[in-house]
Amino acid sequence: MLTKPLMAALAMALAAAPVVSHADAGAHPFSVEDLVRLKRVSDPHLSPDGQQAVFSMRHTDYAKDKGVTDIYTLDLAKAGATPHELVAHAASPRYASDGKTIYFLSSKSGRSQLWSVPAAGGKATQLTDLPVGINNFVLAPGDHRVALSIDVFTDCDTLDCTRQRLDARAKNPTTGHLYKKLFVRHWDTWSDDRRSQLFVANLDAPKQAPVWVSKGIDGDIPSKPFGGDTEYSFSPDGKTVYFDARIAGTSEPWSTNFDIYRVPADGSSKPENLTADNKAWDGWPVASPDGSTLYYLAQKEPGFESDRFGIWALDLTSGKRHEVDPKWDRSAGDLAISTDGSTLFVTADDEGQHPLFAIDAKSGDVTKKVADGAVGGFDVGANRILLSRTDLKHPADLYTLGRNGNLTQVTHVNRQALAKTAMGDAQFFTFKGWHGENVQGYVVKPANFQPGQTYPVAFIVHGGPQGAMTNSWSYRWNPQTYAGQGFAVVTINFHGSTGYGQAFTNAISGDWGGKPLDDLKAGWKYAQDKYAFLDGNRACALGASYGGYMVYWMAGVWNKPWKCFVDHDGVFDARMMYYATDELWFEEKENGGPQYLHPDNYERFNPIDHVKDWHVPMLIVHSGHDFRIPLTQGLGAFTALQRRGIPSEFLTFPDENHWVLKPHNSVMWHHTVNAWLERWTKKGAGDSAGK
Predict the structure, then answer these.
(1) Which of 122, 318, 431, 668 is the most buried (most CB within 10 A)?
(2) Is residue 435 left, alpha or beta, with left meaning phi > 0 and alpha meaning psi from -120 to 50?
(3) Where are the alpha helices (DSSP H) in 182-235?
C-alpha cells in the first residue's frame, strides 16, 4: 500500500549456516525497549577528498517521546576513529565543494533554514531567513547556488505572501476548508492548498530573494509524501536544474505520470518537459560529469507504481534516449554516478537482500558490489563509496567500499547496546509455491533457543503487497522483537514480492487472495516440516497493510492452523477501500479499473464477504491518521468480531498514521501485540476459542 519502490546473495550463505544462537552469557532477550533506544544512522556523505564523512544520527528522547537528530563527522583517514558530534538538533548535512564547510538544515531560529558550519568544527552560521521553512536542498557545483524546496501557495508571487496567508488562517476562527479537487488528504496530512516548489538562492548573496524556477508547474517537487532531494539536481556547470514532477490537475490521485523537467537556474525561462512521451513514471535525474547525458529511472506501464524501474540515458544534445539495463530483471533505486561517468550505482531488492549494484554506463553490464544485507544511503567518491548497511541482526552502521572491493565497517554506534542483548539467528529457505514455482522465506529462531525444544510461532505476512521481508533491520515489524519474546518467526515472500523478477511481482495484481495464499500455505507447511522447533499448534498470523488484508482474508478462508490473528491497518472491505483511500492508481491497477466499472473484481477476494466463517480470536490495530487505509476499515472488522462473539480487541492511536512512529506508542503497540500472542499460544490456552 506504499508508493515508490523502497532490499538482497546472503540468502545462500544463511541457508548453509547452522541455525544457532550467538548470544553472550548474561545478555537479555532483545525487546521493544531496546529497539526504540537504538541510535539511527542515515544520510552519509563523503568529503570531496574522500577522507572525511558527515552523516545524521538520531537518538530517542524517551521522556519527551520524540527522536532527536544531530550531525556527526568521522575521520576516515584514521583507522578506528569515532564519530564526533558537529551540530546538535540539525539534519541534511552536505559538504561544500572545497570540503571546508558543511551546509545543513536547522529549525533553531523557529523555522527550517539553511545553515553552515566549518567542517573542522566551530560556530554555525544561519544563511537564510526566509518567511517560510525549507523542506530540503541541493547545492550546485561550486556552491554559488542552492536549490530549495519550499511549500507555497502557487497563486502567491512572493514567499511573504504565503507567510501572510498562513498567519491569517491561524487567526481566523472559522475551521472549515472548502476543497474543489483531490487530493483532499494524502498519507497522513490534509491538504492546505500549498505545493512544494523549487527556488534557487544565490549563496554569494543569501539575503536576496530566491528565484522561483518551477513556477507554473502544478505539482510537488519533490513528490509527496516520501520524496526527497534525489528528485532534483544541478548540471555540472550549475546553470541548469533538473527535477521530476507529476502535474496534478484533476487526475493526481489516479496518475503515476511523473516527468523530468529542466529549467535555467536563474529562472530566465519556463521548465521544459524532457520525457513527455512516456506516460509512466520518470524520475531521479542525475547528469553525467561532462554534462552531456542525463541518467534517470523510468517505468513503462502507466498507473502501476510497482512496475520495474529501468535506468535510462538521455543525450541532452540530440534528444535521443535508450535504456541502459534492459536485460536486468530488477527494479533500480537510489541512482548515482561515478566521478568519471563510466559507472552507475543503484540499489535494488534481490532475493531477500537489498544490495548495491554497479552498472556499466555503456554496456549495461551489472555487477553486485555489496551482496548481503540491505544497503541504505550511499555516496560515491573518486576512490571509495560510503554507505549505510543493515541486516536482520544489526541496525544501520556506516561502511566504506574501496576500489578493491573490500567492505570495511567504520562505525559501531550501537555496539554497547547490542552487546547486552540476545537475538535470534535467521535462515532463508526456498520451497515450491504456486504452480510449483520457487518461493523464498525465512525463519528466525527465538533468542532463548534451546536445542530439542519447541516454540510458538509468529507467522508474519508482509505488506506492500509489492514489497518483501528481507535481510534488513526495521523499526517496525522487526522479527527480533518477537524472537526476544520467545517466539520463532516465519515469513514468506509470496508471489507479488519484489526482488525475484518483474513477472513474480506482477503476479499478485488481480489475484490478492489467490497465488499469495497458495504460497503462504505451502511455505507454512514446508517450514514446519523442515524446522522441528516450530510448534505449529501454537501459532498466530500477523500482518499490516496488505498483510492486514491477508489476515482478514485468512480469517475467512484459512483459519484452521491459527490460534490467533493480529491485524494492523488492513483492508476489510475492498469496495469502500476504493472510495476512501488516497491513491486511487493503486486500487485501479490491482483490480483492473475503478470499482464502479469492475465491481466483480473488487468482490472476488473481499474479506467482508467471509465474516460468517470467522472464528479465530483477533487483535486489530488501526490509527486515526491512516489515510491510506482509513480507520473505518479496522472499526468495521472489530464490529464484525464483536457481533459474532469472537474474542477480540481493538487498539487505536488517534495521532499515528499507517505506521506507529512515536516511541511510547511503539512500546505500547509491541506490548499489546506480544500479550495477545502469549495469551493464545500458551500450551492449552484457547483450544476452544471462537468455536
Answers:
(1) 431
(2) left
(3) none
Distance CA 108, CA 121 (A): 18
pLDDT of residue 25: 58
Q: Is 287 left (phi over 0), alpha (psi -120 to 50) or beta?
A: beta
In this predicted model, what pLDDT tens digit does every residue of 171-209 receive, in sequence order?
999 999 999 999 999 999 999 999 999 999 999 998 899
* Dist CA 550 CA 433 (whole Å): 17
Share of the chain above pLDDT 90, in %: 95
Greater model confidence, 14 or 418: 418
C-alpha span between 30 and 421 (Å, rounded): 5
At 38 the three-state DSSP class reads coil
Burial status of residue 423 (CB atoms within 10 A of its CB: 0-12, 13-18, 19 or more): buried
Give me 654's grid cell: 488517534
For residue 631, give the H/E element and its range: helix 631-644
β strands within 140-292, DSSP E: 145-152, 185-186, 189-190, 195-202, 211-212, 232-234, 240-246, 258-264, 272-273, 282-287
Distance CA 260, CA 232 (A): 9
Sequence-ordered list of residues with C-beta below 8 angstroms from that of 58, at least 6 positions apart, any chain: 39, 40, 42, 67, 68, 69, 70
Between the alpha carbon of residue 599 and those of residues 141, 509, 593, the distances in Å are 53, 16, 9
DSSP for residue 3 = S
Residue 230: φ, ψ to 5°: -80, -5
Distance CA 619, CA 415 (A): 35
Task: Work out the number of other CB atoms within 10 angstroms of the CB of residue 591.
Answer: 24
Rg over CA atoms, the chain: 25
DSSP letter at 508? T
Tens digit of pLDDT for each residue in 224-257? 999 999 999 999 999 999 999 999 999 999 999 9
- 546-557 helix and 515-530 helix, angle to the nearest 10 degrees: 80
Instruction: Answer whether 69's CB lies under 8 Å from 57's CB.
Output: yes
Cell of 634: 479496522
Which pLDDT tens digit goes with each residue over 333-360? Answer: 999 999 999 999 999 999 999 999 999 9
Beta bridge partners of 190: 185
Task: Check if the beta carbon of residue 658 is closer than 8 Å to that of residue 1.
Answer: yes
Cβ–Cβ under 8 Å, residues 389 and 373: yes
CB 681: neighbour CB atoms within 10 A? 23
C-alpha–C-alpha distance, residues 479 and 446, integer Å = 9
Is it true that the peptide bond before 222 is cis, omega within 30 degrees of 0?
A: yes
How remote is the C-alpha of 192 from its chain's centroid? 25
CB neighbours of 432 closer than 8 A, spacing ≥ 6? Answer: 438, 439, 522
pTM (2 d.p.)? 0.95
Distance from the first to the final alpha carbon of the chain: 33
Neighbouring C-beta atoms of residue 431, cutoff 10 Å: 19
Query: Are residues 125 and 113 in contact, defined by beta-carbon separation less than 8 angstroms?
Result: no
Residue 683: exposure state from Cβ atoms within 10 A (0-12, 13-18, ≥19): exposed
Q: Are 222 and 229 in contact (CB under 8 A)?
A: yes
